[in-house]
Each structure stands twice: as structure tokens, then as C-alpha cells.
Amino acid sequence: MNQIMKHQVNQSLSLVLSLIIMLSIAGCYAKGNEKKDPPASIAPQATPVDGNIITHASLKEEIEVTGTLVANQQVDIVSELTRKITHVNVKEGNFVRAGTLLFQLDDEDLQAQLEKLRQQEKLSALNEERLRDLIKHEAVVQQDYDQAFTNLKVLQAQIAELQVMIRKTQIRAPFDGQVGIINVHPGAIVSTNTILTNIEDNSSVKVEFSVPEKYANIIVPGSEQKFSVASDSKQYTTKVIARESRLDQNTRTLLVRAITQNPGRVLLPGQSARLNLALHSSNEALLVSSQALIPSSQGYSVYVAKENHVQLTPIEIGQRGPTVVQVLKGLNNGDTVVTSNLLRLQPGAAVQFVTLK
């Protein structure tokens, strides 16, 4: 009997334990399938950017062209006669004044002819004077006196002609300037085709350059331009003095000549010059950083920020500089333009300015 009761009690405990286990498993299953409330939505963070406030600024439109420096005066020294060089009176590279004797040609035969003619002139002058006295007393006919007078004048003309030839044997500097390389030496026979040396006046230099047809009426005589050369970094000022009367038919450009002073003669003829030609200027230009431009097939756009949100704004640009671009249409004075982090932006995006200039 006791055995039967123990067995029944054990069965009851087993049932209770099994029921508790089942209830626990069911509770865990229900808790696992319980729906969770969705988290509250998080507002998107503002993109950090840099920006510029657009204001009116001064703008000068320029174009860069290449020119050539030319001496104010330059000439090749040649002889007008075919003769022998007897003296070279100048050194290479020296500065000489106008009229300085540079080369002496052999003139011994010319001097001998001159002396002969002068002696004949003396005799002809005495003969003319004697006949002039005789004709006053009607001792000779007028024809004899006229012949003597003509002979005297012919001799005087021959003397003058010979003196010109002798002066041509003295080759002098035509103007103040610097002598170049000497190409001949005493004893050399020179002709009219022989270049003895050259002289250049570099006290001022001319700048010759060509401008496109579009700007032909902008670069006018009297205007000042800036240029530089490769030998130094200095900016020089030159003044336009003349323009060619017509365009070059091949290049459609206009040749312009300007002049600049050359103290110390540091500028050398033949050097190339880089000119930045001033064309137009404006004090009311709107300039935007070139970093702000977003190119597309329709042109350019920029992100304009209003109340910390950006909008994509199409613009029309004009002249471009190294770091800025002129805006012709699309922006107003005071607009704020985003200049960085452009790839992370889209229209309507929130922004936070790190720097604002």
C-alpha cells in the first residue's frame, strides 16, 4: 500500500515539473517573438564646408602676348668705298658718341689728287682775276673772261667732290651708341658689302608685339603696358607709340610698337618680352573662387547657401584668373557660395561653415 502511494506521489511530481518546464518554454518563445518599438528617427548631420561671401571687386581683363625687344636705333657700319683699312680707332663693346672716328680708310691717292686740283685752282683764280681787270678796260673780249671764270668754278667743284670722297674714308659713328663686334682689321680690303661692325642705341628700347584682331582698337598709342623678360623677374612699363596701318593677312594680328627707357642698358635688343596687355577694367565685378565651380554639359553651377541649406545655382562666367572667375549672371552681391566638400552635397543638403570669407 505504501509502495502504491509513493508511486502516485512521484507521478504527480513529474507531471507538475513537466508543466512548469512547458510554461517556461512557452514564455520564452512569446518573449522572443515580441515586436520591438522602432527607434526614434535621427536628423541628418550638417556637412562641414568652407564658403565665400560674394562682393563687388576690382577686375582687370588682360591677355598675355609675346614680343621682341628692338634697339631704339641700330645700324650696320659699312664703307661706301672699296679701299684698305689703315686704322681701327674703336674697341669692341665701347660706348661712342656721334661723330667719333671708327675706321680710317687709305686716302693717300685722294689727298694727292686734292693737292693737284688746289694748285690748278690757284692758277685759274689768278687768270680769272687778271681777265676781270682787263675786261674793265675793254682790253679783252667777254668770251675770254667767261671761259676763265668757268674753268675756275669747275676746278672748285672738282675739289669739293674730292673732299667728299676723302670724308668717306673716315667712317664715323652716326649716333651715340654701343659698338658691337669688330669684323675687320688694319690692312683688310673692304667693299660696300663688308659689314665692319654695328652700333646700337640702347638708351631706350622698343617693344614690338602683335595683338589679335579682336583687340586691335583697344591697344592705342599713349597707353601703358607691362612686360617682363627671362633674364630677371622685374616688371617693366612701356608706352605704346605706334601701330601698323593694317592687319597681317596671314595671322590677323596688328603689329604694335612701344618704347621704354633702359637705364643701365640691362635690356638687350633681341630679347623676348612677355606682355600682360590691359584691356578692360571694372570695379563692380562679382568674383567667385574657381574651386566653387561645378561643370556640366549645360555650363557651370555653384552651391549657394541660404539658412544653412544649399541650392544648386547655374551661372554664366566671364574672364578667368589664376584662382577666381568672373560671374556675369546667376549670383548677386552678398550671396554665400560653398567652396569645399562639393561631392558630398546635393540640393537641399544642410551645411555647417568651418570657414567663411
Unreliable runs? 28-38
CATH superfamily descriptor of the domain at 44-73 and 201-357: Efflux pump adaptor protein, beta barrel domain
Bulk shape: rod-shaped
Structural class based on helices, strands and sheet pairing: alpha+beta
SSE run = HEEEEEHHEEEEEEEEEEEEEE
Helix content: 10-25%
Q: What is the CA-based Rg, rounded? A: 50 Å
Query: Can you summarize the main beta sheet?
Result: 6 strands, antiparallel, barrel
CATH topology of the domain at 44-73 and 201-357: Elongation Factor Tu (Ef-tu), domain 3
| N- and C-termini, Cα separation | 103 Å
> Could you tell me the number of beta strands?
19
Query: Under the CATH scheme, which architecture of the domain at 44-73 and 201-357 would be assigned?
Result: Beta Barrel
Q: What is the topology, as strand order, of the major beta sheet?
A: 2-9-12-11-10-13
Individual helix count: 3
- Give the CATH level 1 class of the domain at 44-73 and 201-357: Mainly Beta
Oligomer: single chain
